Amino acid sequence: MIRGFTVSNIAWPAAAEAQALAQLRRLGFTGVELAPGRSIDGWPLAHTGLEELRRRLEGEGLPVVALQAVLFGIEGPNLFTTDAARAQLFDHLARVARVAGVLGAGSCVFGAPKTRDRGALPAQAAFDLAAAFFASLGPIFETEGTSLAFEAIPQSHGRAFVTQTAEALALVKAIGHPGIRVQIDTGAIFANREDFSVIAETASYASHAHLSEPGLLPVGTAGCDHAAVAAAFTASAFDGFLSVEMREIDAWASALERAAEVARTYYGMAPLETKVIE
Predict the structure, then answer these.
(1) Is residue 147 a contact partner of residue 106, using CB atoms and an 8 Å limit?
(2) Which value, to the nearest 10 degrees, does the dihedral of the CA atoms of residues 10, 163, 127, 115 take?
(3) What is the pLDDT along the chain (278 residues), one digit of tens a residue?
(4) Does residue 277 sit within a domain?
């Protein structure tokens, strides 16, 4: 059963945060997902004010449930190029785990298609290297009370490693550590035309999920079959948060309204309370 409904803060302008958070509360969302580069002073070299940020958001009734875009804008780390680039990736992700621990975020989404472009490396060699690398990170995330949630990147992104949800599941199974889980991304499932049954197959290995559409279009605008996907979630063992992920547009406030309506209509988000006027 879906634990709660949240929204990633990439959906609104940074300057409009107070307005956006007030709207999330009004719409009935129960948490927020943060992109560290938009929310944390000094990221990634320094990360100050984390306790204050956590207290403020929890005081707003919108605790941090996940981090995403944890490698956005960061040059150098790479999973498959060199030992030095891989060590840089390890150090950065260990930092991400510590930040998530302070903020109380239960999942850290690992997307980063450029960071996991396998180039000419054969698929099996890439799989074996990735499994060993993330197995060494698993204990760090577990110690911080969080998990690294591996996200499938749609095939349209080229040679990014793991383009299908089933491939993310296979990797997480091979790693076999609770600190490394799957991130279910409905946008990737729609873009790849995956069978919706993959949600039930993956659910018990997933720590987080995104309610999204291909290209991060505003939720509810791409003609996606949310009724079928929602039915697959209902039939699954998924018990994490479902977080709206969509890119910022000029009419971002209206986009939040539409996304909330999709979440309520199809995914079981609680209806808004109505006041009876006597």
Answers:
(1) yes
(2) -40
(3) 899 999 999 999 999 999 999 999 999 999 999 999 999 988 888 778 999 999 999 999 999 999 999 998 888 999 999 999 999 999 999 999 999 999 999 999 999 998 999 988 999 999 999 999 999 999 999 999 999 999 999 977 666 799 999 999 999 999 999 999 999 999 999 999 999 999 999 999 999 999 999 999 999 999 999 999 999 999 999 999 999 999 999 999 999 999 999 999 999 999 987 544 44
(4) no
Residue written as tokens 């680039």? 85
In a domain? residue 245: yes
- Domain of 48, CATH number, reads 3.20.20.150
Instruction: Name all contacts of 82-87 with Cβ < 8 Å and 24+ positions apart.
Output: 86/133
In a domain, 116, yes or no: yes
Range of the domain at 117: 4-266
**Residue from 127, 117, 238, 234 nearest 173 by CA:** 127
Q: What is the CA radius of gyration of the chain?
A: 18
Express the helix, strand and coil content of the chain in percent, nearest 5 each.
45, 15, 40
- Count of domains in the chain? 1
Residue 222 placed within a domain: yes
Q: Is the distance from CB of 169 to CB of 182 less than 8 angstroms?
A: yes
Measured over the CA atoms of residue 74, residue 150, residue 238 and residue 233, the dihedral's sign is positive
